[in-house]
Amino acid sequence: MQVSVSAFYDWKTRPAKVINAETLQLYRRLKVLFQSSRQSLGSRELAKKLREEGYSISRERVRRLMRKLNLVVRQRIAYKNTTKRKHHHAVADNLLNQNFNPLGKNQVWAGDITYLRTAEGWMYLAVVMDLYSRRIVGWHVDKRMTTDLIYRAMLKAINLRQPPRGLVFHSDRGCQYTSKKFRDLLEGFGIRSSMGDVGACWDNAVVERFFGSLKHDWILKVFQPTRAHMKQDVSSYMKYYNQDRLHSANGGMSPIRYENSQIKVSGLG
């Protein structure tokens, strides 16, 4: 081991550092939170999660413990996804103009499509997000990227939230969103369509960030052998994202907890 004899015997006679039960429990909880996020939570998010559970701990201490326990965040990689509209389809005005912070839930939703690769072939995911809390209120996975994909995701969102007429739904100008079938669905429920500019990914930046987290914090960290496995894994992430993942836009709370906290504040719940 390339150490001197004297150094070895000095180490051998040195008393071992005793770890108390409270510190050991902190170590275990830190590892559980880190592993449950698939090695994606950094020191800032882990510190917030621990404080949420009652631990009095600073971000700097969490950073030191992560080094000590060899908890290394696996970095994201770049990705891209795109859909193109058919030129005979209608395009809605941009009602959002990058204002991603509505004052209440069911005022502004946003949606998009991304691709997911498995050993059996590609799958496609459509989501509907409530921008108020960043909660995913509807989603659907299929092996074909058709209008039916986003249609089903929107129906799930409508059934879950029962939104009032006048809700704004923001998307890109992909052919699925500009299709007559989808426009008729929105009009039937009194939902106003809003679309970003061509090639301006920042016009739907919040959903783009969600897809980045889904893929590079979760999906790409395990082998995806089948489409069925991928669908189940996406479902697991949706549960983790809505219930447990902390968001700075929500004051460090998960989407569902943020919505529930606002109901209590308003006295409606």
Task: Quickly list its features.
10 helices; 43% helix; five-stranded mixed sheet; 269 residues
Number of helices: 10
Average pLDDT, to the nearest integer? 86
Strand order of the largest sheet: 3-2-1-4-5
Percentage of residues in helical conformation: 40-55%
Principal-axis shape: elongated
Q: H/E element string?
A: HHHHEEEHEHHEHHH
Cα-atom radius of gyration? 23 Å
Number of strands: 5
The main sheet comes to: 5 strands, mixed
Report the uncertain regions: 78-82
Q: What is the strand content?
A: 5-15%
Briefly note the structural class of the backbone.
Answer: alpha/beta
Tell me the distance between the termini.
64 Å
Report on the structure:
The structure is a single chain. The protein is of the alpha/beta class and 269 residues long. The protein is built from 10 helices and 5 strands; from the N terminus they run ααααβββαβααβααα. It has helices at residues 5-13, 21-36, 43-52, 59-69, 147-161, 175-178, 180-188, 205-217, 227-243, 255-266; strands at 108-118, 121-130, 135-142, 168-171, 192-195. Strands 3-2-1-4-5 form a 5-stranded mixed sheet, with helices on both faces. β1 and β2 (121-130) form a beta hairpin. α3 (43-52) crosses α4 (59-69). The protein is elongated, with a radius of gyration of 23 Å. The protein starts with a helix and ends with a helix.
